[in-house]
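Extended Data, panel c. Modelled sequence:
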Amino acid sequence: MTVMADRPHMLTEDFEAVARIGAREVEGLRLEFIDGVIRSKAVPDGDHGRIIVWLSRICMQHHPDLWLHAGQGVKVEQYREGRAIPDGVLAHEDAFVGQGDWVDPGPILMAVEVTSWDSDTERRDRIEKPRAYASTGIPVYLLIDRLECQVLVHSDPDGQRYETVRTVPFGKDVRLPDPVGIVLPTEPLKDWVR
């Protein structure tokens, strides 16, 4: 079977059904649908989870009314045809109540990804996800890159891409721009890499 590059592998609603079944049938399976292609995402390891908890605590200290919602499915890409599962999304505590498995990205102030040790991380976290999140207008995309020991802060989405990308090594503080408005101390991240 030949896959057409200009057409999705399947309809979005068919993907949602497959993702729901897959998540129940195979423990730890996480599927995403980006650029019309089904992708699997590695199950987070202990250090990955620790980074999300650490970041969640920092966000709540600065913005008690905002939560870093972990593993929330999000409708992404133009016309919301894609489906992604960021490691975390920063939004009001009740932003997704009643929305189901795949939420509208409108209330999201920041999407967060932490690199995994799988072979798809390069394409998924550094190419596809920034494009998908920028297309929805999510103001900030934070990539915590454990492979390169650096943090990338994407901001100023123009509907196609993020116009500004700031890269800092672990150990150096980085400012997450408004609407997040937090200075992130990245020194602790050095303890959560292989």
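Confidence is low (pLDDT under 50) at residues 1-5. This feature is highlighted in the accompanying rendering.
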